[in-house]
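To close the chapter, one final illustration. This time we ask the reader to focus less on the individual chains and more on the assembly as a whole: which components sit near each other, and how the overall shape emerges from the parts.
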Amino acid sequence: AQSVAQPEDQVNVAEGNPLTVKCTYSVSGNPYLFWYVQYPNRGLQFLLKYITGDNLVKGSYGFEAEFNKSQTSFHLKKPSALVSDSALYFCAVRDPGFQKLVFGTGTRLLVSP
Amino acid sequence: NAGVTQTPKFQVLKTGQSMTLQCAQDMNHEYMSWYRQDPGMGLRLIHYSVGAGITDQGEVPNGYNVSRSTTEDFPLRLLSAAPSQTSVYFCASSAGDRGFEETQYFGPGTRLLVL
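The assembled structure is written out below.
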């Protein structure tokens, strides 16, 4: 069965500092991996995805993520955090053998001025 | 494009009542799905559709029905509401023929409270 884990409920970082939001996954085949962001009282918005190819994926708003097959991880990163990045971040995985997308429990990112 | 729209934004029901959550998209997407979001549990797939006339169950389908008579609309029906169905419901759609490999576009959500 496919699953995804986000080990941190909340990540706190000061504005201007680099940020990392962690995600690990478990699938039976080659994974399709996604990051989505949710701002208060809004639906989820797509940030980036990894399907195949380069392990470093660049996405919206300056975010990037690195696919690491040996560690089964897909951590979200940004070199310099903004207060406006404060939101709830979801990692998701699709196992090619299954017709669904499985979401993690979410990590709240709080960027302080 | 309006994208994915959902109505109502908020609803209060009494146990045993029925209601329909509406979802529409104007992007001509084949794939549509319904999720519920609960604290500490992320999003869980309720039902999904790969095209008009075709629906299938997700992780948590019990207590919910769906139908897909047109490409644009994908309503979610609660047959007899229970307090356990108190949640925030999101509808999503995606383009192409690869379904969940594609970027999902989410609606703004419906917040449901069952008393």
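The mean pLDDT of chain A is 91. The two ends of chain A are 41 Å apart (CA to CA). With these observations in hand, you are ready for the problems at the end of the chapter.
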